[in-house]
TrEMBL record:
Name listed for the protein in its UniProt record: Dynein light chain
One Pfam family per UniProt: Dynein_light
Entry annotated with the keyword DNA repair: no
GO cellular component: cytoplasmic dynein complex; microtubule
GO biological process: microtubule-based process
Main localization (coarse): cytoplasm
Keyword line: Cytoplasm, Cytoskeleton, Dynein, Microtubule, Motor protein
Cellular localization per UniProt: Cytoplasm, Cytoskeleton
InterPro entries: DLC_sf, Dynein_light_chain_typ-1/2
Source organism of the structure: Euplotes crassus
Superkingdom assignment: Eukaryota
Length: 110
């Protein structure tokens, strides 16, 4: 039996998202919000891995809706593998971090 015959669609190896550490590039956020954002990013990453969400924009939409419910104001989420940014944000409401190869820029403005 060849290697290709052994592979099946959807038979991905299980991944433990709880052990993934967030690497911060920039952080100006209260601990409660920071922890919520990291957990939310891990949930979105898991949904993408499990094929519940197809694109990074779907992950960002999922995260924005949850952040808007939990904390008032207008939250903005940018997810990608290679990007730069310059943005205006409210004090104590921005985080730029990485989960493995994926970057998450989360900030509140408005």
């Amino acid at each position: 039996m060849s290697k290709l015959e052994n592979l099946k669609v959807g038979s991905q190896k299980e991944k433990d998202f709880e052990i993934i550490e967030a690497r911060f590039t920039y952080l100006d956020m209260e601990d409660k919000k920071r922890d919520f954002c990291i957990d939310l990013a891990k949930q979105a990453y898991k949904k993408k891995y499990d094929l519940e969400l197809k694109y990074y924009r779907d992950m960002a939409k999922f995260m924005k809706e949850e952040l808007d419910k939990k904390f008032e104001g207008s939250w903005h989420i940018i997810i990608g593998t290679h990007f730069g940014s310059f943005c205006t944000y409210e004090v104590k409401c921005i985080a730029l971090f990485w989960l493995e190869h994926l970057g998450f820029l989360i900030f509140k403005h408005g």
